[in-house]
Amino acid sequence: DGGITQSPKYLFRKEGQNVTLSCEQNLNHDAMYWYRQDPGQGLRLIYYSQIVNDFQKGDIAEGYSVSREKKESFPLTVTSAQKNPTAFYLCASSIAANQPQHFGDGTRLSIL
Amino acid sequence: GEDVEQSLFLSVREGDSSVINCTYTDSSSTYLYWYKQEPGAGLQLLTYIFSNMDMKQDQRLTVLLNKKDKHLSLRIADTQTGDSAIYFCAESMFDTDKLIFGTGTRLQVFP
Description:
The complex is a heterodimer.
Chain A: E1 4-7, E2 10-13, E3 19-25, E4 31-37, E5 43-51, E6 54-57, E7 64-66, E8 76-78, E9 87-94, E10 102-103, E11 107-111
Parallel strand pairs in A: 2-11
Antiparallel strand pairs in A: 1-3, 3-8, 4-5, 4-9, 5-6, 7-8, 9-10, 9-11
Chain B: E1 4-6, E2 9-13, E3 18-24, E4 29-37, E5 43-50, E6 55-58, E7 61-66, E8 71-76, E9 85-93, E10 98-101, E11 105-110
């Protein structure tokens, strides 16, 4: 089945540690996105990539990094510089820029 | 500036129609979307409408767009308990390829 797979479902981070969230899609989509969701709020864009080997900062990129070495993969690293990382992280993809985005099931990140 | 607003909560009886409303501020949006989120899950794309359309119907779902008032609504006919979830509206910006989300409306369906 085609879809977007995020892993792990739950992740715990220790102080000063970097952690990487995985996002893989087999939909042959060009564009991929990372969002952060905090309780009672909408989603906020962290980073997005419209094509392989290229990505742009979203509204809240500080403390995060991404790479896009393969079309199907767009991992997100939450660095120790992100002081408030506890949130639900959602990955999305679309066939091209400005087309409907489809979401994975999310990763919930907590601080130990 | 970009802003999307929704009411926080809606409660309806099973079998009734639900209407979830959304207002947005940016007139340059290209598409407007409705997403559904169940507890602990990602967002499911329900339907979307191009900004030059007034209405779109898809089975039990009807989307109405009033561009003059910058108002979007989602009507769910014959609401079922499985429709209980949080519903997000979002607008897409042509020049930046990003979605601006509302804060979500929690729909509760009671028997």
